[in-house]
Amino acid sequence: MVTSSPANVRSAVAAPRLVVDLNRCQSYGQCVFAAPTVFRFHGTESLEYDYAPDPGRWAEVRRAAAACPVQAISLGVVPGSDSAVPEVPGE
Ligand code: SF4
């Protein structure tokens, strides 16, 4: 029998995603300052991030993407999904 917990349902429906091109990332850390609940360093240079942040964090994520000096942060959707990157009022 297959069951769906709320977490499983969320991961299947909430498709907006954030991707960091780690080949492009130079560990400047601007994203960590802009969105510390989403981006963090593990060790001195290894960037970690939440690829599906809570919708309430998307304003921070957009600021982080804008602050990245090498444009390594992309915001998008999972192919085949009808969800979009959440709009943030006032932006
Ligand atoms: S701001 Fe850009 S280059 Fe700097 S750590 Fe974040 S993703 Fe990497």
UniProtKB/TrEMBL annotation:
Highest taxon, organism lineage: Bacteria
Gene3D superfamilies reported in the protein's UniProt record: 3.30.70.20
Protein name: Ferredoxin
Organism: Amycolatopsis pigmentata
